[in-house]
Amino acid sequence: MRDSSTTRNRRSGRGKSSGATFISQEASAERGKTTQSATKSRKQSGDLSENLTTILSQKVVGQPAATRVIVPYIQMYQAGLAPEGRPVGVFLLLGPTGTGKTKTVEALAEVLHGSEKNLLKIDCGEFQMEHEVAKLIGAPPGYLGHRETQPMLTQQKLNSVTSEKCNLSLVLFDEIEKAAPSLTRLLLGVLDKGILRLGDNTVVNFEKSLVFLTSNLGAREMMREINPDFGFQSVKPAERADLTSKLQNIALVAVRKRFSPEFINRIDCISTYQPLTPESLSAILDKQIADLQNHVNTRLGARSFTLEIPFEARQFLLRKGTSPEYGARELNRTIHRHLTQPLATLVATGQVEAGARVRVNLAEDGEGLRLQATEPTAVEMPAHPTVLIVDDNRDLLHFLERLMADAGWKLLTAETAAEARKRAAADRPNAALLDYMLPDGNGVELGVEFLQGAPQMLVIVMTGTILPPEEEALCEEHNFPVLRKPFLASDVMNQIRSRLIPAAGART
Ligand SMILES: Nc1ncnc2c1ncn2[C@@H]1O[C@H](COP(=O)(O)OP(=O)(O)OP(=O)(O)O)[C@@H](O)[C@H]1O
Ligand SMILES: [Mg+2]
Question: Phi/psi at 86 (nearest 5 deg)?
Fold first, then answer.
């Protein structure tokens, strides 16, 4: 079996235009309807589809084949070429536990709608008995419980997981193998005609939906392949390729045993997720630690601190939180137990000062982590920092200006990169908040330019879209926080406070 197999080819030519409203340009709403912003928004939407594969691969580590197959369906919808009378795409995601199947759909929801929560998730484990399936579609009129059972799968629910940015609903049927046969029959109608008839005879339309089915089918047999004797850490590339195709075969055989050919034929792509390599697991850990640091900065604002986690401590977290059996599934919990909770205790008991460094060392017995907060280093702390904001959205500029003035900060505003250069040279701001898309340039490059003249300056990038990978890399390299629009004004203030004026909590 190939890593993804297109099992149906019913997608040619029958265009429809209703799907073309893919991204409704959050940025343009925010910037007013000027021609300039319309041009920008078109570029942003184009950028997004171009970069979707890269962005998904960054969020879902080590599964490039799986993420690659999804994007063309989104592009087809964006182009208005998705066929009528069926969902935009139907995907069956298979493979061992904790390898990113559910994460893929969550990551897609985040990219398309701005939040992992914007997806309709049906946990099929809750519909193992025939009578439970009524919870999904509601009982027909006249039947017992008709009034009490509100169907879970209504048009309203489907629409509620879309966003201003995108009107495509993501629907996830998790652990599909656990569903009662009547649920599979219902699904057949959804996959085939794009509609679901509810108990009260109303119809739910799935034509603007991507449907994901995940399953652990064949997982036990896969584990026998992966484990126990050769532990995949030591697998050589050739053996790994062999393992990949073995797992795919196991998955496909299991799927054929469980589902009828007509059901399988209605699936567009079957993708088998691979066991995560040590490098991928390590990259997932790094991302989760970066998320934790970001969370600390945003939540604690002026009281935040910097985490220092050396190699040995990271290895400990990987040892405890990952395994061939469960992939990265336990990593979140392990970080919570060994890092987040002890950190919370340090903060709650007043043992970490604002601006301190918290070093996380491996315990002497190697069986735990020890957190040690150092004194905050003396930082030049302007009581009233000067902040330069460069954006061509006047409403946003005025709003931030008022807010920062209330906090006693001095604010400089500019609408173009050229204007910003002049203001930066004249007033030497402590921080610069730069929109990525400027009428005459790019905020990330402007930030790098500013740093050359003023290495101490704090640069924050704002964006209404996803940054292209090279810009993301620049932000990472220069440690620029990236704020995604829409954001709360308090997020901006907290980022500046946490990084620029660690002791400001006492003053402002
Ligand atoms: N490829 C990955 N990239 C990034 N994070 C991952 C990846 N795989 C797993 N994780 C982490 O592990 C957690 C569990 O992963 P996920 O729920 O996607 O597993 P799954 O493949 O759906 O497993 P299951 O078959 O048990 O449902 C995620 O929330 C995420 O934190
Ligand atoms: Mg899952």
Answer: -165, 165
**C-alpha 323: how far from its chain's center?**
23
Question: Where does 142-277 have alpha helices with state H?
Answer: 155-160, 181-193, 219-226, 237-258, 261-265
Rounded Cα distance, 280 and 57, in Å: 11
Which strand (E) or helix (H) includes residue 423?
helix 417-427
CB-ligand 1 contact for 281 (6 Å cutoff): no
pLDDT digits (tens, 9 = 90+) for 434-449: 999 999 989 999 999 9
Delimit the CATH 3.40.50.2300 region(s) of the chain. Answer: 386-506
CA 71 to chain centre: 15
The CATH code of domain 279-373 reads 1.10.8.60
Distance CA 168, CA 19 (A): 8
Q: Which helix (H) or strand (E) holds 431?
A: strand 431-435
Ligand 2 center to 36 CA (angstroms): 43
Q: Is the distance from CB of 443 to CB of 464 less than 8 angstroms?
A: no
DSSP β-bridge partners for residue 166: 23
- pLDDT computed for residue 484 by the predictor: 83
386-506, CATH topology level: Rossmann fold (3.40.50)
Give the residue, by CA position, lying nearest to ligand 1 atom 25: 97
373 vs 437, 502, 503, CA distance in Å? 39, 15, 16
What average pLDDT does the segment 471-478 reach? 82
What pTM was estimated for this model as a whole?
Answer: 0.71
Q: Whose CA is nearest to atom 27 of ligand 1?
A: 97
Intervals of CATH 3.40.50.300 along the chain: 4-275
Please give the structure tokens belonging to residue 441: 């340039």
* Topology at the third CATH level for domain 4-275: Rossmann fold (3.40.50)
Measured CA to CA, the distance from residue 340 to residue 342 in angstroms comes to 6
444: nearest Cα among 472, 416, 404: 472
